TrEMBL record:
It is a multi-pass membrane protein. Its main location: membrane. It comes from the Bacteria. It holds the Pfam family T2SSF. This is Type II secretion system F family protein. Keywords: Cell membrane, Membrane, Transmembrane, Transmembrane helix. Residues 81-204 form the Type II secretion system protein GspF domain. The chain crosses the membrane at residues 12-32, 190-208, 214-239. It is found in: Cell membrane.
Amino acid sequence: MTPLAGAFAEATSAAAAALFAGLAGLAALAGLPGHAEARLRALRSAAARPAGPTVRDRLAHRLAGAGGGEARRKTAVVDLCRVLAAELHAGRSPGDALAAAAAELPPEVAGELAPAVAAAQAGDDPGPELRRAAGRPGAAGLRHLAACWQVASGTGSGLAAVVARLGDALAEDVALRQELSAQLAGPRTTALVLAALPAVGLVMASALGGRPLVFLLTTPAGLTCFAGGLALDLLGLWWTHRMVSAVHAVLEPE
């Protein structure tokens, strides 16, 4: 066999292995839900959530407590609104209801709300303190609570019903964000698998008797193919990371 024929056979073997790896990657992608389907599942999941806390809510609360201050605050704001609404429905004054609701939260979150509680119990507007606390990661919902408090105190509207609806809305928003974030795990995993498939193709080509590395690393055509394939592989990883990061930027509260 001439050197040219040997190089052609090695290139054909490597191309066949790469084609097989590509088909395997397409089959893996076909099994993943599309963007519209994933969003529809997330919306259905959020719409089907009951208004009251469930076992899943309590488990998420514990996991959030172990996952960092931002996730803990997100769950704590929802709990604050729900307990505050329940205390107001029971007939307690707004200041006492806010103090009782804050006492049910984790100690570090309750400490951050202490100035707002003190202002409410003194008969002052806790809105500025709530907005100041809302600047911490995961506590953006406190801005809405401050707005509800200000509107209720200014118009005489019932604060309990407004806060109850706010708690439900924040809970649905947290559930939707968690569901959509979970859906992003699929594209990330797929990108890593597809990035590793060329290496699998090289191993398979070597197992079939070819010498793809010799062709790729010692010939001009092979070096061109190797550089182009590596560039496209890295471009695919970067593009997937860019899309996932863009979705995360939309999901994260301001």
